[in-house]
Amino acid sequence: MPNGKKITISVIKADVGGFVGHSSFHPALLDMAKEKLGNAKDKGIVADFHVIRCGDDLELIMSHDKGCDNKAIHELAWNIFTACTEAAKELKLYGAGQDLLKDAFTGTVKGMGPGVAEMEFVERKSEPVIIFMADKTSSGAWNLPLYKIFGDPFNTAGLVIDPSMADGFCFNVLDVKEDKSIMLSCPEETYCLLALIGATSRYMVTSVYRKKDKEITAVASTERLGFIAGKYVGKDDPVMIVRCQSGLPAVGEVLEAFSFPYLVRGWMRGSHNGPLMPVPFYEANPTRFDGPPRVIAAGFQIANGRLIGPHDMFDDPSFDETRKKANHVAEYMRRHGPFEPHRLPLEDMEYTTLPHVLGKLKHRFEKH
Ligand code: F6R
Ligand code: MG
Ligand code: MG
Questions:
Q1: Which of 98, 285, 290 to mutate to test the pocket of ligand 1 (most atoms within 8 A of CB)?
Q2: Domain interval for residue 327
Q3: pTM greater than 0.70 (yes/no)
Q4: Is residue 15 flagged as an active site residue?
Q5: How far apart are CA 200 and CA 339, in angstroms?
Q6: Is 218's C-beta closer than 6 angstroms to any atom of ligand 1?
């Protein structure tokens, strides 16, 4: 892939079966996905790839020259997920194929269950990219860090110090209920942006662009499994791609947004608020009360389409205090048991099994 040509980074993920329960992922399935992507690389379908997992989610990171939403790339991911599901069924792994909500591939994995984040850009002289992957949480979980990275000068010094960022960034926000999106420009529309994206279950930042040249800088997955399936089938466990440095937020500014273990929806039965804990790859095994929710960060340098990495970005003692605080917050939230605000509000419980429980009591209510 010579310089000046566009490359595409596609991150496509799915829960194809958990080991043990929903806590982690079986190595045999990772090997299977690696082998299949290796074959695809030999055939020239992808330029490069990396396979990783976060909790019980299989994450396929691919570089290629085919653009976003490409049928061959999506079909490749779908076929890997279905093959891994078969292997998961043989091992009787938990919830085998849980995110594959449709039977037959129809041209895109969007709307079929897997989560997708893709971006196409011209590779710069040096191209540092961080891929964030979360487990036990929902789409919309990236709203807060995306605002901090691209909108908050208390997080990102470059917004104040680097003239190439001074114009600010544009945020594309999706209303998942109405299926409409709006582009908001910061800093001048900061308050409007926050009015929307503070409501993380409905408004989601899908992408961020540098205002002065419309350069794409971040893309987030926004698939809502509950909306697709019409019931609770597991958490969305979103992914996100962020480009860094040279007129974009620095690697350290991007990671700084995760130094506060903010509350996200997810955790046990997808029904609880809990802190998002940034962890190294080997600690992305949420066990306590099926959590607390985790995020990992895989750093790459892109070199002519090759994915040089990953470097495990949260494998750093400077995040120890964040993890400690996350554990304190987890303990504090857990003491609420089945009470809000640990348990999600009723509207968010619509897609869980709770309405069945409440349905049984319906006929026993009398006029007050
Ligand atoms: C979290 C998640 C789990 C399950 C829980 C119950 O995303 O999926 O917390 O909801 O382990 O699972 P079942 O009902 O399959 O026993
Ligand atoms: Mg699972
Ligand atoms: Mg998961």
A1: 290
A2: 6-364
A3: yes
A4: yes
A5: 20
A6: no
Let me know if 351 is a catalytic residue: no
Which residue numbers in the chain have pLDDT < 50?
Answer: 1-2
Decide if 17 contacts 28 (C-beta within 8 A).
no
Residue 229 located in a structural domain = yes
Question: Which pLDDT does position 3 carry in this prediction?
Answer: 56
**CA distance linking residue 309 with residue 52, whole number of Å:** 12
Q: Which alpha helices (DSSP H) does the chain contain, by range?
A: 27-42, 71-90, 143-151, 158-161, 190-197, 225-229, 251-256, 320-334, 346-349, 354-361
Instruction: Encode pLDDT of 185-198 as tens digits.
Output: 999 999 999 999 99
**How many domains does the structure of the chain reveal?**
1
Residue 294: enclosing H or E segment and its boundaries?
A: strand 294-303
Catalytic residue among 211, 232, 348, 351: 232
Which token pair is 59?
Answer: 């994450």
pLDDT, residue 226, reads 86
What ligand 1 atom has the least distance to the C-alpha of 353?
14
Q: Is the CB of 261 under 6 A from ligand 1?
A: no
Judge whether 297 lies within some domain.
yes
pLDDT at 229: 85
Q: 181 lies in a domain?
A: yes
Residue 1 included in any domain? no
Instruction: Tell me if 98 sits within 8 A of 115, measured CB to CB.
Output: no
